Structure formats: structure tokens, C-alpha cells
Amino acid sequence: MNGDADKLLAYNGGAVVAMAGKQCVALASDMRFGRDQFQTVSSQFPKLYCLGPRLYLGLTGLISDIQTVSETMQYHVNLYELNERRQVKPHVFTSMLSNHLYAKRFGPFYVESIVAGLQPKTYEPYLASLDILGGTTVSKNFSVTGTCKAQLYGMCEPLWKTDLDSMNLFEVLSQALLNAVDRDALSGWGATVCIIEPDRVTLRTLKARMD
Amino acid sequence: MECLIGIRGKDFVLLASDSVAGRSVVAMKKDHDKMFQLSSKLLMAVSGEGGDTVQFAEYIAKNIQLYRMRNGYDLSTKAAASFTRRNLADYLRSSTPYMVNLLIGGHDDNDGADLYYMDYLGSMVNLPFAVHGYGSFFTLSIMDRYYKEDMTKEQTLALLQRCIDEIHERFIVNLNSFKVKIIDKDGIHVLKDIRPTTKPPVEAEGTQQQQQLMDTA
Question: Of B196, B188, B174, nearest to B30 (Cα)?
């Protein structure tokens, strides 16, 4: 039924990776917006979306669907926060996203998502990845998605260690992303990293190979 | 076979589109305007499936005007582009998707001049310069090399002329005239059509000698 899914997920290219550290979580994406696989339209297209003070969503796949899903989830979060008068928790947001994606079970959005955030009060890291139908996996260490998923797994597995502090987590995550996308024609053209800590969020752009 | 070009300059956006209206192998009209005015300072250039282009462009234009009538002020460029994108994305999974690629150029007081590139799937990005069609293969690298931020109108037109010359040189389809419009704080201005620079015919080496030999024989 979804034989086209792989082709459509690779149409625009892209990569997102997230890692958990000690009381912090970091999320990184490439910046490429490709078209028809071999043309590059833009190198200023980050795939990270801020949905709350300590809640970020990273999406890869068809860019049209990335934009639709991120806009719709922003709408749901806004409505939730207006009605509930409190911030949405990461695992609750993940359920909302999963539900939204499964609603299109027989005509899905071609996006693979990563939710990265800190639990309110305890500031414990939360990482979850979702497939195109909303199937969720909560991770303790790292989550990867994109056209260079395999390369990202290969980089994350040996580099990640438990309880990395935010500086080291940034280094580890950056190296994982940069080296993985260099082995993928459809990802790269810049990189952006976001470190989420209890008291601050830092967004950095990396110097990457622009090819 | 259609080519749309957009370049953002200092507080203005330049949009250019080829003026051939073709069906299959026939050029039906050579002075066709592919740009639609959405509001006083918003212009949209469309290419794609015949019929869909005009229908979608007029639908968006009328809705932008409706917003103006209801609220008393125009939508910003970003909002209008987002509205257009959402429509394209929603129609994509309907039984009547619109196969149109667009460039939206606009100027508003808060953000200045903006150029948005949108493809038929509904993916949108804000760019300093953008091209749709086969022309993009020939011109994007030229723009990468020669584009600078905050160019004047003359500089931008010179860059556009380079692009059109290259398309004329290497693209197999003859696109020999482009409609050009500029959007700035004073509105939309129509400029003269731009044609490729005429170059003197290149004579192959030895042609004159050969001609002399043939004349005497």
C-alpha cells in the first residue's frame, strides 16, 4: 500500500538527530531543501520547530508535509495551552502528534518525527521518535531519522555516553550529524543544533561541508 | 518548458516570467503574462498545468481581496504566502490537486521585500533568488556566483539579463522574451520586456576561404 512512502520520504532529503544528556537534551538537523532528489533549492531550511520553552519537534520527509504537520501541531499546542492554562508535557504532545498522524492511516503525511524535550519540574530528558503512521518509540539515549538514518545510527552508537553534560553533548551530537550527512547525497548543506537545558535553549549553526 | 525567475534586491523584488504560452509543441502566444496581482503590493508568478495555473491564481487573488474587504488592510507577504501554501497542500490530497509552481513577491512595511518559492506539493521557502522550470538548471549557478544582498534595480536587471542570455544560449526551447515586474514600497511596476542580448553571428574559421574556393570552382 505504501510502496511510494520511501520514495516520497527521500524526495526532499534531510536528517534530524537527537540525544539525551544529564538534565539536558539536544536536537540537530541539516539545512538542505532538495527537489526531485538531485536539485538543491535552499541551504537555509532547518527542520527544527519550537513548540514550547522546553519542547522541540524535528521533522524529516516531504517538506510540504513537514510544514503542514508543524503548523497543525503548533495550532493544537496553542489551543491546549489556552484551554488547560498550562504547558503541554512532552509525552502528552507525543500522543497528540501520534494521534494526528494515525488519523491519516490510509493517506499518511510523509514525515518522520522526533520529539525532544525536558519533563516539567524534574527536567529529565524526553526523546521520542514517530514513524509516518504515528508509531512511537521512546528512547533513553538517542533518536535518528532522515535519508541518512543508517549513517546516523552508525555515528551515534559509539559516540554516545550516559550523563553527558550540555557542552559535551553538543560536541558529540554535532560530530554525529556532520559525519553522517557527509555520506549522504540528499542531506547536508549546513547544520543547526539546539541544546535544551532547564534554564536556557541555545541554537547554533555549524560550519558544514556545503555539498 | 516555462521559466519563472525571482530576485530580491534592496527593498524590492523583481519577478520575471517567459512570455510563451504553449501547448505541446505549439507556441500559441508569444506575449503572455504569467503574473497575477494578488494585492497592491503582492505579485504571484505561476507555471504548471494548463488551466490549473489561472484557476488557482485567481482563486488565491480573490481570497486575498476578500480579506482586504473584510478587515480593511492587506495581508502581509508571509501571511499571503502561507495561505497559498496551505491551500496547495490541502488540495494535494483531494481529487482535484493543483499542479502549479509559484513565485510570490511582495513588499510590506514590517518585513520589507520578500520572495517566496513554492512548488506544486506545497513546500515553501523564503529565498533571495529563485527559479522554476528547466531554466533553473542554467541560471541558479549564475545567481549563486553573481548575486549580492541589497542590489540596486540596475544591478538586478543586469543579473537577470545574464540569466536570460544563458537560457537563450543553452536551452533547447526558444524563450526569447520575458515579462518583468518590480514590487517595491510604491507598488507593482511593469518594466519593458527583456530579450536575450543579440550577439553578432559567429563565423567559423576558414569559412571565407571555403566560400572563395567554391566561387572560383
Answer: B174
Distances from the Cα of A105 to the Cαs of A108, A138, B121, B196, in angstroms?
5, 21, 20, 51
Q: How far apart are CA A32 and CA B157, in angstroms?
A: 28
Chain B residues close to A63, C-beta within 8 Å: 121, 123
- The interface residues of chain A toward chain B in range 123-162, judged by CB-CB distance below 8 A, are none
d(CA B125, CA B105): 12
Which residue in A44, A64, A71 is closest to B123 by CB distance?
A: A64
| Alpha carbon distances (Å) from B119 to A69, A192, B17, B58, B208 | 17, 24, 16, 17, 51
Cell of B55: 484557476
Kindly report the nearest CA distance between residue A125 and chain B, in angstroms: 32
pTM for the whole thing?
0.92
Report the C-alpha gap between B157 and B177 in whole angstroms: 14
B82: which residues sit within 8 A by CB, 6+ positions away? A71, B124
Distance CA A123, CA B152 (A): 51
For residue B194, the 8-state DSSP code is B
Q: B180, B187, B189: which is closest to B39 by C-alpha?
A: B187
The label of the residue with cell 532522515 reads A146
Q: What is the pLDDT along chain A (211 residues), one digit of tens a residue?
A: 457 899 999 999 999 999 999 999 999 999 999 998 789 999 999 999 999 999 999 999 999 999 999 999 999 999 999 999 999 999 999 999 999 999 999 999 999 999 999 999 999 999 999 999 999 999 999 999 999 999 999 999 999 999 999 999 999 999 999 999 999 999 999 999 999 999 999 999 999 999 9
How many CB atoms neighbour CB B161 within 10 A? 15
Residue entry with cell 543547526: A192
Neighbours of A175 (CB within 10 A): 14
- Count Cβ atoms below 10 Å from residue A143 Cβ, excluding itself: 25
Phi, psi dihedral angles at B153 (to 5 degrees): -60, -40
